[in-house]
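Hello,

Following up on my earlier ticket. Below are the four sequence lines again, exactly as submitted.
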Amino acid sequence: MEHRSQCPVASGLDIFGDKWTLVVLRTIFAGRRRYSDLLAMPERISTNILADRLALLERQGLIAARPYQVNPLRHEYHLTAKGADILPILQAIARWSVKHIPGRWPLPDWFVTAEPQRYYPV
Amino acid sequence: MEHRSQCPVASGLDIFGDKWTLVVLRTIFAGRRRYSDLLAMPERISTNILADRLALLERQGLIAARPYQVNPLRHEYHLTAKGADILPILQAIARWSVKHIPGRWPLPDWFVTAEPQRYYPV
DNA sequence: CTGGTAACTTGCATAATACAAGTGAAGGGA
DNA sequence: TCCCTTCACTTGTATTATGCAAGTTACCAG
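Thanks for your patience. The regenerated structure is below:
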């Protein structure tokens, strides 16, 4: 966890400044919590990148793995408070894209009105 | 400009989803508009990456080069309306980092209260 | 003629990402 | 029992991106 500087913008991007990390979080916000569900996202993420990003997000404390079965042990990935607080970033990105890139999907209502608290762990 | 999907989040990240693009924009918001000023940012960007990102941002219409001298021709990089509208994304990232990463610089007041209109071209 | 600045470009090494295939544990059916 | 399938990965290799150092071009000052 070495940061390029103490700048809040640069430091955030040290964690999630790549093509996939925020897309994975978006998918978890949409309710997909298992590896296979995440793998089936329309953007076609590859298996090693998904596994790598889930491990990174867990290490950084943005998501937490919770078992949903044993034999064999499998888990769902849930947002932590730290991860749920990413929502305003996703909303800002989405608003920019809808305004400036033609042909984007319209934003679903639940996404526009959602607040991080809604996704905090119980 | 091929997008992975029509998703507004993923499409935005297709444009600025890397370690440097948003850091360069942040620096321009801070008033540094020339190549040498941008190169002097505390995060130590390398020359080829800076030149590449400026070309990309210009091609995508987020910044525009305006000459400030001839002989030799040199230009400053100014935000377009499309580029200025990135501000809410930077603000959301900065707020998240200040809250969740210890030791970040406090946000300057001008940054917290800034609005994209302030940076629109004249 | 030499040195300096600004804004790059080029070459090469290293790191990140993409794609295909393989692995291991379990379950179901013939 | 043997074979086939699913889930959640891991491994190997190719391609792309990034990082670092050095070189280039145009100009100006002394």
